[in-house]
Design goal:
Shape of chain A: globular
CATH class of chain B: Mainly Alpha
Helix content of chain B: over 70%
Largest interface: A-B, 32 and 45 residues
Structural class of chain A: alpha+beta
Radius of gyration of chain B: 17 Å
Largest sheet of chain A: 7 strands, mixed
Radius of gyration of chain A: 22 Å
CATH class of chain A: Alpha Beta
Number of domains of chain A: 1
Distance between the termini of chain A: 66 Å
Oligomer: heterodimer
CATH architecture of chain B: Up-down Bundle
Order of helices and strands of chain A: HHHEEEEEHHEHEEEEHHHEHEEEHE
Number of strands of chain B: 0
Low-confidence stretches of chain A: 35-81, 279-287, 340-356
Mean pLDDT of chain B: 78
Number of domains of chain B: 1
Low-confidence stretches of chain B: 73-94, 161-167
């Protein structure tokens, strides 16, 4: 193609414009210095569920990876401080639905307590009013994006405020995990053992599994974690599935060789977002394998504007959280919601799943 | 972080910044967009790194980011900012007539509708084919040709306008 004189001029002009570009070396330094962005974005559901497992399965290997190059120092939390920290674990479904929300506390002694907050819980969303827990993020996201602000940051902020108002616990950090991490990680560890009480098949999640003990990996692991339709207790059975799966995954990860851990770390790192202030190295340095999991107290199923929801009594939730997160608290938490399955108990990663771990 | 992501950034960052600057006519906006896109790309590198030409994929992310409605407000300011900056610069940076013409053309390109400018930059800076441009802009080749012919028409009509009017 032969350029006309005008085209040649256009080429020159565009090239001259391009020459105005900032020096790439400065941008390169910027990119290297930055954490993978404040936004927790495409993080998904299952992740959150027990920090216990999430921490062991995701954060620990990530930290192993990062330990060679410590992340930026947070002035508010210099390395070495040993105060208890709370972390809000957020799981998004790929758009803006927070399918799982977990509030975890890592005590001074490294013990982890993790409380699941069911997404259908009917709560007070600051500045909005009553709504399902999973609407807080989505609503703030949409509002912010419409104004040209960062929707993910607004979503996290709104969800954190909602959780703080509900539990009376201050949220120090957040972290979110991409659901896809569990497909990848389950494959990387050669499958995760679970046991189903009955065969499971559901087109929403794509799950198609026989009953009994089996090893899950890849897309079926993901489907297993996401299935909600067709389960007797719906969302709550899913929470139990996620907790069981994550414990089993944690057990496998905990028994891995260092080289394997490094590989898992790389895989996990792609799916985890945390706020820049969360110093993973320091955080993980004092973890112990002890993890307690629970579900906040729940009331009746009620009808809300957005379908059925679970009522919660803020007073009961606060009382429960105060006890559950108290320094030195051990053993089975009392007052939390219990699904008639091993949802709430003291666990140690590495323990062999028992037969009664079979889930719906 | 996969090593090939770092390699990609090292190899392509300069070119991406230049492309984005030509696209936006605003080097700071270009930097913001490229940084944002590369940070996002890092999260998805397992997938992006596996495509045939990661650079094309990332270039599309940069283009879409600029064309997305989120950037619209910023984009509106661009042309005026650009012209304002031009005002501050020496009227004719180089005494050569050729350069004066070129700078006048820069100013005219800067006020084109964004999609037309994107098509123009892809063809005349990135030397993309119509099919590639269509893939990046997410439209048909016919639309690409239409964007470009309209842009060329506008630039031709304006060609006779004394550059003083634009400045």
């Amino acid at each position: 193609m032969t350029d006309t004189r005008q085209e040649a001029l256009i080429r020159d002009a565009i090239a001259a414009e391009a020459d105005q570009a900032v020096d790439y070396r400065a941008v390169l330094a910027n990119l290297h210095g930055r954490q993978p962005r404040r936004r927790p974005f495409a993080l998904f559901a299952a992740a959150g569920l027990t920090v216990a497992a999430a921490v062991v399965a995701v954060v620990v290997p990530l930290a192993v990876d990062r330990s060679a190059a410590p992340s930026a120092v947070d002035p508010a939390a210099p390395p070495g401080t040993t105060t208890a920290r709370t972390v809000l674990l957020i799981g998004l479904d790929g758009s803006t639905n927070t399918d799982s929300v977990v509030l975890a506390r890592v005590g001074v002694d490294g013990a982890v307590s993790a409380a699941s907050l069911p997404r259908d819980a009917l709560v007070d969303i600051p500045g909005v009013g009553q709504g399902k827990l999973n609407s807080a993020y989505a609503r703030a996201y949409a509002a912010a994006e419409a104004e040209g602000r960062d929707g993910d940051a607004a979503g996290v902020e709104s969800l954190a405020q909602t959780v703080e108002a509900l539990t009376g616990v201050r949220v120090d950090h957040y972290a979110a995990v991409d659901m896809a991490a569990f497909s990848t990680l389950s494959e990387a560890v050669g499958g995760v053992e679970v046991c189903l009480k009955s065969a499971s098949r559901d087109e929403f999640s794509g799950v198609d599994l026989p009953s009994g003990r089996q090893s899950l990996s890849g897309p079926q692991a993901l489907a297993f974690l996401r299935q909600r339709h067709g389960l007797a207790n719906g969302e709550l059975d899913r929470v139990v599935r996620q907790q069981t799966f994550l414990r089993a995954l944690a057990a496998k990860v905990a028994g891995s060789e260092p080289a394997k851990l490094a590989e898992l770390a790389r895989l996990a790192g792609r799916h985890l977002r945390a706020d820049p202030a969360l110093n993973l190295v320091e955080f993980v340095g004092r973890l112990t394998p002890t993890v307690r999991t629970a579900i906040i107290p729940l009331g009746e199923v009620v009808d809300s504007e957005n379908g059925q929801a679970l009522s919660v009594d803020p007073v009961a939730v606060r009382a429960f959280m105060a006890g559950f997160f108290a320094d030195g608290a051990t053993g089975v938490p009392t007052g939390g919601f219990s699904v008639p399955l091993p949802a709430t108990e003291t666990e140690k990663p590495g323990r062999t799943p028992r037969h009664d771990d079979c889930v719906r | 972080m996969p090593a090939d992501y770092d390699q990609f950034v090292t190899d392509r960052l300069d070119r991406l910044l230049r492309y984005a600057t030509a696209l936006t006519c605003d080097k700071h906006l270009a930097q913001d967009i490229v940084q944002d896109v590369l940070l996002r790309a890092r999260q998805k590198w397992a997938r992006i790194g596996a495509v045939d030409v990661p650079y094309l994929y990332v270039k599309r992310m940069v283009t879409n980011d600029y064309l997305s409605w989120r950037r619209r407000r910023a984009a509106r300011d661009v042309s005026s900012t650009h012209l304002a900056l031009d005002d501050l610069a020496p009227a004719v940076a180089d005494p050569a007539v050729r350069h004066a013409e070129r700078d006048a053309m820069r100013a005219r390109i800067a006020v084109l509708p964004r999609k037309q400018r994107a098509a123009l930059v892809l063809r005349y800076y990135e030397d993309s084919t119509d099919a590639e441009i269509a893939g990046i802009l997410g439209c048909t080749e016919g639309t690409v040709r239409s964007h470009i012919s309209r842009a060329l028409h506008t630039l031709r009509v304006n060609e006779n306008t004394p550059s003083e009017v634009l400045r």
